[in-house]
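Hello, quick one for you while I still have it in my head. I'm working through a protein record and want to make sense of it properly. Would you mind checking whether the tokens look sensible for this chain? I owe you a coffee for this, so here goes:
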Amino acid sequence: MRERRRGGLRGSMRDGSDDSPVDSHRCCGSPITTCGTCVQRIDALWAQRPRIRLHLRSKGVQEDQIDDVLSDVYLTAWRRLDLLPANHDAAVGWLFVTVGYVLSNHRRGRSRRRSLIHRVADEVNTASAALAQPIETTRLEAIEGWRSLNQDDRHVLYLSLSGLALDHIAYLLDCSRSAAAMRLSRARRRLTEQSV
């Protein structure tokens, strides 16, 4: 198996996680927040926010998502401060490369959410056909109906659509079988009302 390069751009920052503790580092062994060198480095990188914002806009990132991406980029930089290049210009380059990895993670997350919404909409349509009062709805109406439900209703419906038996649903909801059946029935009724 190939060993990961500790100081390189590949592997060491793709996932955003870090095995080393966040509160101390190799520079002097003191907490990061009290080390003058580390605080200066973070401040210098933090000053690059306007450039990174422009870069994100040029990549087509929507305004409401820019702050999330920036937060993840700087969180990764904070966690990996010891691995950043010592040269300031190289560290800024590292930030821009990290932007690419973070954007990829955000895009994959959006794609997973979209696919889950479509899968749930298909499941809702399939499950509703089995009800006494079938729902004839389009995918968009099913999605809107699903979104309008409260979290408890979505949870019980999701458990049911996952193929779990009523006994298992009751166990997961920490209630009796009859209470689980009632919650499921009410959630289905609310979904039917929202989707029609």
